[in-house]
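How it folds
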Amino acid sequence: MFVVSALLMWIFATAWIEPAMAALVVMVLMLWTGVLNWNDITSNKPAWNTFVWFATLVALADGLARVGFIAWLGGEGGRLLHGYNPQVSAVVLLVSFFLLHYLFASTTAHTTALLPAMLTIAASIPGINMPVFCLMMCTSLGIMGIITPYGTGPSPIYYGSGYLPVKDYWRQGTIFGAIFLCLLMLIGYPWMVMMF
């Protein structure tokens, strides 16, 4: 019953109650009625592990945006790449965008913080095919979740469960990330250029 009420609030009541508040209300009701006790909550180590990873790294991403790092990056990047071959500039921006994901806790935070800056830089470089560049940037987001133990929502859960040891996670993330970027540039780019 509590789970159904939470789902209903998340689906139909978002105009009146934030999704996080709906979850908190349902959790408090479950504690109050005895469905859960406090030990059930505090003993769930993987959930707390996930919470700590996301709380700190989302705060870091927000902090980078608030202190003006993103605006600075956009301005400096545009000046730095101005005058280079547009294809070389696009590759540099794509690889930078991909590697900067290591600083962010989620794909959403990464996209919100960096995609506007990268698009601003690309738009200031004459000769870059913007529709293709946008497709390349957005397509690269798909693999970023596997490169770190904190890259997307499921990543900390995999890491926290012990299913993938941290050393293997980083190593395999690097390998598959490099393979993906190479395939995106060698196969995806020419295909996208044919589309636009």
Q: What stands out?
A: The chain has a mean pLDDT of 85. The chain has two domains: 1-43, 44-195. Residues 166-195 form the longest helix (30 residues).
